[in-house]
Amino acid sequence: METNQxxxxxxxxxxRALRTRIRDGDADAFGELFDACARSVYNHAYRLTxxxxxxxxxxxxxxxxxxxxxxxIDADGGSLRPWLLGVATNVTRNTRRAARRxxxxxxxxxxxxVVGDFADELAGRIDDEEQLALVRTALAELRRxxxxxxxxxxxxxxxxxxxxxxxxxxxxxxxxxxxxARAKLAKALEPSKRRGQVRGDRTTAVGPIEEGNx
Length: 214
What we know:
Layout: H1 2-23, H2 27-49, H3 52-68, H4 81-107, H5 118-123, H6 127-140, H7 144-155, H8 160-167, H9 171-188, H10 190-198
Helix pairs in contact: 1-2, 2-3, 2-4, 3-4, 4-8, 7-9, 8-9
């Protein structure tokens, strides 16, 4: 027990020292933060957008924002990972708003007739693609707030308190949004589950990997 308490105290001291160095503008400390959390931010961004290229852009924008906002970091506290995921969530919202404005502008331009792609048609006949499309559709039908909580708590492995801090909302709101999101996904994926059982239950072979807190 004493050993565990000593390790926890040492970990808290490391977090406190890193926070102080970053607040003071230490570029090396910020590099350490990037190395430790960039993958988590990348995965979180992909889960919110479903686009790897866009997720890469969000990682860059997130750390640019984090550097700009470093003066707001509290001197005391644990890992900065939940804070970074909160910044990434805000960046994603802003990116989506910009994308919607761009799409609206493009939609007003004259368009040529689009010819169907045979490769897309062929891919749509493959079971794995159908299952993936069903999951993406189910996630897309969630409210943005529900999708954000799901990404933080289920896939990024944050507890309710950390997710609430990242999003700036009460813990009770995190619980209720996550409960609604899980219920909606379970209902939406019931047909996929039945098909998977007929084909050897392939749909349960792959699932999200929790990254855990650092």
